[in-house]
């Protein structure tokens, strides 16, 4: 995990500017500033006195400020809750991986006395841990409204799952297609006509080969159409220094061209220079609808949630694996309970994330709050022009910028799972889980005796700085410390040593 938001590092860039809410509130700020300019000019030029009594200004401003504060706080609470849910996914994924990798034995024999080889056992356990990694990736795409399984970072992890309910040796049909693949099928690339993948390719094949292209073909890794998520979502990075996380995944051929792991709306000049969007309003009737992911003002439209059963299907297979282990007696009941609880935690977290993304603030509340704020800012110049005169113009601009900004911030972070700069970095969370799971499977599970009784271990320090190898050189001799000559050798001397260690640590850590 990074300890600092990347937006806070380095100098000021256009990317940081686009992360502000200026892009979203500038039309409203410009409108209310123009109203203030008209009111101030008419009043100061003695054309007509537009000043009104400002008795309600303080009361209404205080109430409106409290309501906007509540709106922003409730949105930030959802933002924080979304982050906590991703922490739950990370913790549960680590727990599941450790139980499978450490507590499921490698040398196993089922109830039919059929033994599994070491390679088979390790492949089985690593494949199930890959499914755990695929869960977080599937949740990421689900929260972004991206359905299906054909993504560069998801398909290599779950492509091993069965496609059909028919038994082996029978010809599959569309009626036998399982829900996971049926929901991802399209008319252009039907699954039931797909050719099975070829045998494993050599390790010498460049891992950057496009997994959605025919066997033996390779697209240019620098192209933006089929490039990695880093190049498609963050094109400001140079090609030489870019990061391609898909290199760490399997290169599995798919009958469907795989979509990028990141597919945010294309960044245009209007995102960096929002004042140019005024021309989009006037030319809207003359333009073709090339990009439906932006509104009339050129702002990015957040994707809506869609139904997706991919994360649910993955948890079903994990539960099936748990049942498989229990049927063969390969997992102790206590560990099986822990594995089941962590799988249930993944399902519970998925439901909570769905709740956060699919339960926006009621429209009536949002509409009433925005209309109340507009009326307040519209009347504000009339109430302050008598005391501020021409300062009414910058004063209204600042007030509208302040209040509209907080209101827009609350609306932006209400659903923190999209591609906005202020949203949660779901790709970073998934990559962190990937690194952690690979770290779990990198451990060889050594016997504690191979590393406990060595010269690198001083178990009784600081009271006794002899290492474990020296302490156990003569197994027949009971433990005896030179400072405890009056104590009986054995456990009594060990207890005195531990008490002395406590006193030394207490004294050393409190000094100074």
From TrEMBL:
Instruction: Give GO terms: molecular function aspect only.
Output: chloride channel activity
Topology within the bilayer: Multi-pass membrane protein
> Per UniProt, which keywords does this protein have?
Cell membrane, Ion transport, Membrane, Transmembrane, Transmembrane helix, Transport
Point out the coiled-coil segments of this chain: none
- Region annotated Disordered, chain positions: 212-246
A Pfam short name: Bestrophin_2
Question: PANTHER family, per this entry?
Answer: UPF0187 PROTEIN YNEE, VOLTAGE-DEPENDENT ANION CHANNEL-FORMING PROTEIN YNEE
Quote the protein name from its UniProt record. UPF0187-domain-containing protein
């Amino acid at each position: 995990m990074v300890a600092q938001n990347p937006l806070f590092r380095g100098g000021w860039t256009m990317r940081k500017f686009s992360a502000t809410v200026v892009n979203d509130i500038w039309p409203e700020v410009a409108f209310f500033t123009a109203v203030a300019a008209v009111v101030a000019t008419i009043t100061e030029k003695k054309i007509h006195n537009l000043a009104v009594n400002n008795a309600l200004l303080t009361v209404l401003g205080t109430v409106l400020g409290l309501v906007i504060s509540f709106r922003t706080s409730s949105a930030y609470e959802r933002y924080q809750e979304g982050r906590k849910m991703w922490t739950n996914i990370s913790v549960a994924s680590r727990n599941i991986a450790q139980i499978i990798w450490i507590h499921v034995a490698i040398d196993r024999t089922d109830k039919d006395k059929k033994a599994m080889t070491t390679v088979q056992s390790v492949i089985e356990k690593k494949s199930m841990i890959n499914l755990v990694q695929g869960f977080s990736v599937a949740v990421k795409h689900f929260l972004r409204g991206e359905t299906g399984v054909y993504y560069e970072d998801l398909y290599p992890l779950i492509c091993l799952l069965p496609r059909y309910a028919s038994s082996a040796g029978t010809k599959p049909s569309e009626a036998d297609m399982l829900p996971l693949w049926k929901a991802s099928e399209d008319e252009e690339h039907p699954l039931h006509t797909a050719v099975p993948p070829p045998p494993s390719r050599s390790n010498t094949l460049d891992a950057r080969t496009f997994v959605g292209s025919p066997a033996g073909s390779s697209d240019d890794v620098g192209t933006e159409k089929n490039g990695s998520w880093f190049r498609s979502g963050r094109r400001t990075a140079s090609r030489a220094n870019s990061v391609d996380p898909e290199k760490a995944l399997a290169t599995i051929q798919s009958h469907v061209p795989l979509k990028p792991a990141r597919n945010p709306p294309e960044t245009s000049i209007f995102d960096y220079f929002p004042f140019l969007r005024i021309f989009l309003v006037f030319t809207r009737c003359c333009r073709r609808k090339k990009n439906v992911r932006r509104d009339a003002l050129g702002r990015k439209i957040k994707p809506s949630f869609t139904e997706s059963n991919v994360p649910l299907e993955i948890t079903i297979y994990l539960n099936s694996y748990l049942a498989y282990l229990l049927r063969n007696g390969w997992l102790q009941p206590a560990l099986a309970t822990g594995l089941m609880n962590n799988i249930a935690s993944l399902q519970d977290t998925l439901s909570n994330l769905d709740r956060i993304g699919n339960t926006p603030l009621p429209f009536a509340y949002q509409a009433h709050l925005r209309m109340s704020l507009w009326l307040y800012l519209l009347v504000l110049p009339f109430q302050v022009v008598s005391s501020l005169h021409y300062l009414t113009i910058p004063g209204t601009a600042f007030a509208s910028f302040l209040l509209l900004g907080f209101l827009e911030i609350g609306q932006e972070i209400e659903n923190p799972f999209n591609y906005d700069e202020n949203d949660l970095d779901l790709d970073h969370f998934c990559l962190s889980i990937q690194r952690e799971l690979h770290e779990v499977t990198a451990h060889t599970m050594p016997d504690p005796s191979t590393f406990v009784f060595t010269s690198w271990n001083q178990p009784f320090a600081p009271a006794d700085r002899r290492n474990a190898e020296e302490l156990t050189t003569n197994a027949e001799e009971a433990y005896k410390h030179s400072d405890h000559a009056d104590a009986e050798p054995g456990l009594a001397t060990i207890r005195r040593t531990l008490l002395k260690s406590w006193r030394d640590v207490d004294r050393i850590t409190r000094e100074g």
